[in-house]
Amino acid sequence: MGIDLDEYRRDSLANWNRLADNWREERDFLLEAMGPVARDLVERLDPQPGQTILELAAGTGDTGFEVAKRLGEDGRLISTDFSPAMVEHARAVGEELGIENVDHRVLDAENMDVDDDSIDGVICRFGYMLMADPAKALAETRRVLRDGGHLSFAVWAAPDRNPWASLMGMEMVSRGHIPPPEPGDPGIFGLPDPGQLEQLVRGAGFENVQVDDLDFVWPYDGVDEHWRLMLKLAGPLAEAVLELDEDDRESVRQAIQEKMEPILASGGAHGVTLNVTAS
Length: 279
Fold this sequence. Notes:
The chain is 48% helix and 19% strand.
């Protein structure tokens, strides 16, 4: 039996509101780490001066801010997230950066309060795979896009291609601390298959779909930083680790760090994403 999607939505909102401060505090690290993904998404979208671009699941807003720089005074970025706390952080970051052509909104990507055919392009970094109903969110995305409008988004590739994240989950499952995820459940690896991802996007009404891998290396200083950041940024999984008693948590830490050490020593912890362009 799959998860209760309404309960998942409530828990997800609470988690992202709770994590918003952490993501703001680690913004510099995330900017460095996610830079290759953000740059690729912006290039795929190819925003033009005067356009109206919508960003979904914006977090602290930095991917969209790169878009806003290209839109000029007559263009507009609508930076959105379903977490009010994330929206407030994005607003504050935008003000610090002096970016003025941005509207910040709390928005549910599965049920957008946005007019039909009113958006020139949509960008989303690591949002759709976390949504309770990504098919509905993609259909909503297609609805708000004008004819000829483009969608540019990224999700994480399969767990075996992203050990930086999957090792903690697999260790917790193997010890019986959390249940294994079921295929199709939302989560960081909720949309890992390129072929199925393309079918999902086409099913939402997009005709031209391109899915490509992007490989980058996380700039971890070592296993201690990896562990610290996973606990600070990883959401429900990190919360499950933190709820363990001290001995169990220390045992999990040692097991994960023993597996991460050779990964970091042999070229770094690779992150692999599936980057999609659709119209």
